[in-house]
Amino acid sequence: MTLLGFSVIALWVIVILQLGVIFALARQVGILFERVSPVGAMMSSNGPDLGTAVPRLALANLNGAPVSLGTGGRAQLVFFLSTSCPICKALLPALKSIRGDEAKWLDIVLASDGREAPHRRLIESEGLGGFPYVLSPELGMSFKVAKLPFAVLIDPGGKVVAKGLVNSREQLESLFTASETGIPSYQAAIAGLSS
């Protein structure tokens, strides 16, 4: 066997070993994702403080009657989204499920800004006709929304009870947990344990 033949065999052995190592690492990463508990919504210090009344705005609804926040005696979840945000679109099925599960006490309002046409296409393609859908730059500015997807939970009395950046259903549901427990965020709970 020549030196060239030996080199080719050695390189193939190395490639096969590397593929095995890559597979093992990928499997370990998957196991870590399963074991790590979900972290709650990342609360923002911007916008209205928890416990403060939401700004009174009359908001035009792309799907029907105008929307008013903090009125009507029901809790509201305002979900800020963008038509170009893949995470926002991935959370839409979770919002539909939450709307069905929590219909007795919660209304979900979708909020964004920009031109109406892309939002009409999103409403049509994702089947969002049953949600109040508002386009209001003033709403986003009043809550000082800097990153998406962002959600704000408003109690029936019109006060902000939880808010934060949400990237998963677990983070959305953490807003409800924050409302029930009075602990505004996962970060606040950890800070309380360490003090």
Average pLDDT number:
88
* Helix-strand category: alpha/beta
Strand order of the largest sheet: 5-4-3-6-7
- CATH superfamily (homologous) name of the largest domain: Glutaredoxin
CATH architecture verdict of the largest domain: 3-Layer(aba) Sandwich
The secondary-structure element order is HEEEHEHEHEEHH
CATH first level of the largest domain = Alpha Beta
Distance between the termini: 70 Å
- Portion of residues in beta strands equals 15-25%
Sheet with the most strands?
Answer: 5 strands, mixed
Low-confidence stretches: none
Structural domain count: 2
The CATH topology annotation of the largest domain reads as Glutaredoxin
Radius of gyration: 23 Å
Helix content: 40-55%
- Tally of helical segments: 6
Number of strands: 7
Protein name: Redoxin domain-containing protein
InterPro entries: Thioredoxin-like_sf, Thioredoxin_domain
Transmembrane segments: 6-26
Keywords: Membrane, Transmembrane, Transmembrane helix
Structure description:
InterPro entries: Thioredoxin-like_sf, Thioredoxin_domain. Keywords: Membrane, Transmembrane, Transmembrane helix. This is Redoxin domain-containing protein. It is a single chain. The chain is α/β, with parallel strands linked by helices and about 200 residues long. The chain has 2 domains: about 1-35; about 60-195, 3-Layer(aba) Sandwich (Glutaredoxin), CATH 3.40.30.10. About 45% of the residues lie in helices and about 20% in strands. It has helices at about 5-35, 85-100, 115-125, 135-140, 170-180, 185-195, and strands at about 60, 65-70, 75-80, 105-110, 135, 150-155, 160-165. The protein has a 5-stranded mixed β-sheet with strand order 5-4-3-6-7. A two-stranded antiparallel ribbon has the order 1-2. The termini are far apart. About 25% of the residues are buried.
